[in-house]
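Protein Record: Sequence and Backbone Structure Tokens
======================================================
Scope: a single protein chain, as residues and as a discrete description of its fold.
Tokens: labelled as protein backbone structure tokens, with as many entries as the chain has residues.
Position: the record begins directly beneath this header, with no further notes in between.
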Amino acid sequence: MLKVGVLGAGHLGKIHLKLLNQSEKFQLIGFFDANEENAAKIEEEFGYKKFSNLDDLIQEAEVVDVVTPTLSHFEVAKKVISAGKHLFIEKPITNTFEEAQELINLAEKHHVKGQVGHVERFNPAFQAVVSRIENPMFIEAHRLAEFNPRGTDVPVVLDLMIHDIDAILSVVKSEVKSISASGVSVISDTPDIANARIEFENGCVANLTASRISLKNMRKSRFFQRDAYISVDFLEKKCEVVKMKDVPENPDDYAMILQNAEGVKKQIYFDNPSVAPNNAILQELETFADAIVNDKEPVVTLEQGARALKVANQVIAGF
């Protein structure tokens, strides 16, 4: 078991503490939270060991899980890596791409592994279809949330849209060619609703919308590729795969057949994979443990986290 310490015991930090405490791959040594009153309350309520000094926790741990506000990520992550400890860090990896690049270089220098908490990669609905997403040419993503003051320290792009940016970058095997975007501040000082159009060198286009002032929650993405349409509902953890194939010589009486203007006929059929339930946060943490123990590349590397951040910042710059 790997000795792990958690930095930050806010809403998400408490979830990480609970899951790491249950995990058979980690030994939770405790946590550090800068808010002394909050830290004392959590120690009393849950029994997790509270460290009064950040450096003491880093020294005792083999792995450090950073779940602090984004603006503090760079400084604490630098401390963790410089101490030779493996780093799990929540998304976005840092506030700027330059900071992320410095962490990547530092991790290489100190021979430590790092993983970024892009949890939607571990969403069971996405996992069920990701192997079927092959060369998508048009992608549409909607991530809408009801207003919550937590997270408004960063624009909606870094709070919500970056989930979809990372997922899209993981399946589109091409460099970004151009980005156009618009964003509007409604309640916060930073944009609360944003739309981005990302064009890739291979011709793929992704249209993303994110909002944190919606009346209902929605997290859906749709991938269109040659002879297939794939839909992922990240919120409901459901997926749908609609495929087309050449019409057989003797089609079934109930077969759904389309004919285009050129007379080419295609049969539509559903190829929906089963979705295996999981705890996405626990899985992302435990796959990181596996990467460390087996000396493998983490599922979401620091480099991938940095690339998602770079694209997100390009979206923000386009407002």
